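Chapter review: from sequence to fold.
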Amino acid sequence: MILPDGKNKKYVDMVSGLYILYVILNPILSFDKSLAISDIKLAITGVSTGSYVSQEDMSRRYILSIENDLKSKIEELGYKPDYIQFYITPDYSTIAKIEVRMKIGTEYDEGKIIDLVLNNFKIDRKDVFVL
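The token string follows.
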């Protein structure tokens, strides 16, 4: 009722349409990175946002998930890993060493396993141990 009729109506309709579009898309386009980190904490831990999750706990859960992922990739090669251990730096920034222990009495190609690890993680060859 308050919009003008006549020549300016199409311009007012266009501007009001753009404003409505802006209001709808603004929350999506202004994605807050701190919000994303809290959502990741929530997804990893499965606890409510009111709970405190330490960086150490998040790192442990992340390391456990990539250990399980590496174990399944080694099993896809046809080998039987017994234990996989990731050693990380004290500041949780990089992987310092990866140790893969194979089940006793099983045959495996150490080179293929090391190549698999090197293709999936940015780590020096000297820091990968297959036992």
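Two observations follow directly from the output. The chain has two domains: 9-45, 56-130. Residues 56-130 form a domain with the GMP Synthetase; Chain A, domain 3 fold (CATH 3.30.300).
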